[in-house]
Amino acid sequence: MNRRLLLATALLPMAAQAHGSATQHGSLTLEAPLTRAAGQGGQGAGFVTIRNTGGADRLLSASTPAAGRTELHTMLRDGDIMRMRQVQAIAVPANGAVSLAPGGLHIMLLGLTRPLVVGESVPLTLVFEQAGAVTLQLAVQAAGARMPMH
Ligand SMILES: [Cu+2]
Question: Is it true that domain 3-141 has CATH number 3.90.190.10?
Answer without folding.
Answer: no
